[in-house]
Predict the 3D structure of the following.
Amino acid sequence: MKRALISVSDKGSIVDFSKRLSKLGFEIISTGGTAKALVSAGIKIKEVSDVTGFPEMLDGRVKTLHPIIHAGVLARRDNKEHMNTLKKHNINKIDLLAINLYPFEETIKKPKVGIEEVIENIDIGGPTLIRAAAKNYKDVIIVTSKNQYNDVLKSLESNGDLSLREKEKLALDAYVHTAQYDSIISTYLRNKWTDEILPDNNSIALRKKQDMRYGENPHLKGAFYKTLPEIFEPCIVNAIKLQGKELSYNNILDGDCAIECLKEFSDPTCVIIKHATPCGIASADNLLKAWKDAYATDTYSPFGGIVSFNRELGKDVAKELSNLFLEVIIAPSFTKEALDVFGKKKNLRLLQLKGLDKKIDRKGMIFRSVVGGFLSQERDVTLTPKKDWKIVTKKKPSEKELRSMEFAVKVVKHVKSNSVVFVKDMHTVGIGGGQTARVDATWIATNKGKENIKGSTMASDAFFPFRDAVDIAAEAGVKAIIQPGGSIRDDEVIQAADEHGIAMVFSGQRYFKH
């Protein structure tokens, strides 16, 4: 007789699975709540305690941790000595395990959950058995998800066993399952118990959110994964698609950029993104003005771009946006009238992201991949307070210019380096980024902005290595500049600003974005 040990936290479909195993001649061994559920469904089972001769103990902490169970799982059927050992100790083989683990991930999502409850939802026997069965995959079928039940049963019902390839796949899934489980636990407890942000050893648990039609380009495969434990901060992972085509790989990258940039601002704000860099940003008293000011920065780059807002999007803005070809529109909510307007553009993706209109606590780490490894750093969410800025020129900035500087540094930190932005009041009038020389970024922005640059405030993500960018900005009509300072030619740069009658402030904070 074949034997199956069944012990699951998620009991969905387990009754049907067990009934079909019983019909195939499997003796069912089970524990605790699973055993009760199966018995209630009229399925004949044998308690693990009857197999081991020991009761479940320590409030259920010890159930399957016993040599009789583990020997039945780990014994190699093609090893005579193993088989003789089982016979000598009157131990029966276990041929199939269906196990999923205590709901640690669900437990930590509970509001104000206590540490005692968290600890009690760390499974011990389950991972041990899963790893044991996966190690002996040629002889033991290891099932770790209800999504595997039907395929396993089909093979058993058709062929009496699974193919080696099927067993290998189940074993691999089992090791991924336990590795992910442990990673979620270690990440949660590190965040709970320590201030450590860059540990010597780290593991990142990921779960696929969706397959992509392709990656960055059509010849590349791609998928979108979310990190575990899940975060509840408004972010691209948590966005809900209300209409339109599936998001592409590039949509997700651009959407992330749009959302993270938007979080810098509390007033009604519009952020326009193209190829993961801003091409227009504005704050205003209302979204319609914010959109018009942001769009005026650069009226041709938004074609095929992404637009995000931090207030509910209404009919007036929807009508304006519907005149353009856009890939994605993001907002905390949409009015019914706005949805009606957008409904005429079936391929347009609308993403609802609740919480964008509220104060957001931004914290945590970010990871970026390189071939063979990852880089990790803190999220860049700080700004040097205005009281710590240093005015370095003869001309002092006005209060209006200082406000524009605050807006400008929030923008420039989201533009690829080398980057400069030009701002009037609370909206951009020119953006230059992604250049190998700062003077080139300045030239691009001033040429794009043309007459709009006159009277603007300029921000640079890093110091000016030479005075040339200041000279170009002055020629375009810039009246004030904020930059980190720290160049060996700071005196030369300050002199250039003084010659042109420009007010210059050193913020002391660099904003490289690679």
Q: What stands out?
A: The CA atoms of residues 257 and 276 lie 6 Å apart.
